[in-house]
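Appendix B.2, paired examples.
Example (i):
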Amino acid sequence: MVKIGAIELPEFPLLLAPMEDVSDPPFRALCKEQGADVVYTEFISSEGLIRDAAKSTIKLDIYEKERPVGIQIFGANLDSMLRAVEIVEKSNPDIIDINFGCPVKKVVSKGAGAGILKDICLMEKLTAEMVKRTHLPVTVKTRLGWDHDSIRIVEVAERLQDVGIKALSIHGRTRAQMYKGDANWAPIAAVKNNPRMHIPIFGNGDVNSAERAIEMRDVYGLDGAMIGRASIGNPWFFKQIKHYFETGAHMGPIGMSERIEAARRHLKMAIDWKGEVLGVLETRRHYSTYFKGIPDFKPYRTKMVTSDHSVDVFNAFDEVEKVFGDYQFV
C-alpha cells in the first residue's frame, strides 16, 4: 500500500497528471472510471486565484466521484501562494500539489513552474511555508533540474521532504529538454533508493505502454506512475495497464461503440461544465486518439476538429457509428 499522508492508495497507483486544457472535470471523470487512482486538476495560477480571475477559479471545481483529487497551483511569490492555499482549501480537495515543473516560457519567465529550479532555496522556503499554512497533504511535481549541468534532484527531494511534503512526482526531463528526447528515469530511481527518503516517489514522462509502467515499477522501483500525454483521448489507458499488471497479457482493444460513447459523454460533460464554445474547442485534441487507426477517417476527424457547434460534432459521431460501426480495432 502507498500512502499520501492519510490517503491510502493501492500498490503502484496510477495518477492522472495535471495538464492544461486536458485534465478538466469531464476528462478526470472518464479517467477515474477507467482506473486512475488519483487525479489532478489543470495547473492553476496563484496570481489568478487571488485576483479572482474566472479562468483560474473555474479550475477549482471538483466533484465527489473524483476523489482522491489534488488541486495543483503554481507561482513564485510567497504571499500570493499562501493566499492561494487558503482559497484552494475552500474547494476541499484531498491534496494540494505545487507545480515546480512546468517548462512553458510564460510561466518560467516569472520564476514559477520549472523556473524555480534555478533557486532551490526559494523552492524549499515556499514549500515549507505552504505546508505550515494548510492541514491538507502537500505534494510537489517537478523536473530533474533546469538543465543537464544542474541536476540536483536527490538533494531537492531531501529538502522538500524535510519541510513536510507527503509525496513527490518527478518528470524525467530537465526544463531545457522541454518534452524532447527520452525521459531519464535513473535519477528518479536514485531519489527513491536514497535511504533518507520515506515519502512516495512517483515517476512521470514516457509512460506510454503497459510494459513501460511495469519497467518503472520493477526495474526502477518507483512507487507509482503519473501519466500524462498517453492518456489524452485514451482514458482506458489506466485500465489497460492494470489489466497487464494482473494478467501479464494485454487487454483486448476498445471497441468502436465504447469509443463513440466516451467521445459523446466527454463532449456533453465539457459543454455542461464550461459552455458550448470552450466545450467544443477543448475536446478537439482527444478525437484523433479516440478514433486512431481507422482507415479513410480524415474527413470525419476534420469535421470533428473544425466544427464550432456541438450539434455538428455529435452528427459526426453519428456518421462514424453508421459508417464504421463494425470496424475492428487491433
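Example (ii):
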Amino acid sequence: MVKNQNYYTYNINCDFFKNWNSKMAYILGFTCSDGNIHGKTLAWDLSNKFESNKKLLEYMNQAMNSNYLIEKRKQSYRLRISNSVLLEDIQKLGILPNKSKTIIFPDVPNQFLRDFIRGVLDGDGWITVRNRKNRNEISIGFSSASIKFMEELVNRLDKNILLSNHNLRERKKTSKKGVNSIYFQLDYYSQNAYNLIRFLYDNLNTEDLYLDRKFEKQILARKIYLEYSTKTKRFRETELEFNSSVKELLEGLMFESGLNGVQIAKKIKVHSSTVYRWLEKTNVRKPTMRGSEEWKQRIYRN
C-alpha cells in the first residue's frame, strides 16, 4: 500500500515479480519491449491512438491487483507505479533504467516462455500480411536495440519450436530530429511465422494476457496462410493467369458459360480430374457418389 503526495492510497501486489506465472511472464516480456524505469517508478506509455492499448494496461493493472491510475496524456495512455519492492524485483530480472541497448533475455522457465515472448511481441513486434510476387505472405517479427537480447530470443525459439530459418539483422533509423540509431530486427515468414503464431496463441484461456489488436491480426494471418498453403502450385498459377480466384473462374465457366468439366479443363489447360477436384475444393459443386445417377449423367455427358 502506497500513499502519494495527495494522500491517495494505492494498492498493488508487491510480490508480483517474485514468482513465475503466465501473467508475470507476459508483463515482464512486455516491459522488456515497452516499459521503463524512471527514478522510483515503473511506467508503461502506450499510444492513445488505439483503445486496445488502454485495455491492455487495464488488464495488466488487474493482474497485479493494482488500483494505480491509467492517465490519458496528450499522445499516450500511461500506467506508472511507485513501489520499492516491485522495482527491486523487476530490476533483478534485468529491467534497468535506460535498458534499451543493454537489456538481456531473462532466464524464463520454458513453461512460461510463450507468455513472455507474446509480451515482447505486443510491446515491440508485429504480425503482418503483405502481397509479395502476386501472393499473400504472412510474417511475424520483433525489434530491439539489444543484440544480446535478440540473439537469445532466436536461441530460445529454436529450442522450442520447429523453425527452419530467420533473418536477424542490423537496421538503422533516423528520428524526426535527425538523430541516427541502430536496432536489430528479427522476422519469420510463411510456415515459420505460422508455427510461431501457433506457439504464442494456441489454447489461450480467459486468464492469459494479450493485446487485442495483435490477437485479431494473428487470426487473420492464420486464415491467409491456411488458404494459401492448401492450394497446389497449378491452382495458384491458374489464379495468376486468369487474374481471378479459381472459385470465381469455375463459377463463371460452369454457370454463366454453361461449360462442363471436360470443356472447362480444355479452357484452362488442366486435366478434367483436376477440375472436378477444384469444383469440390471450392464448393462450386458438391461431390457426387461414384455410381449414382448424377455421377453417371456427368460421365456420359463428358
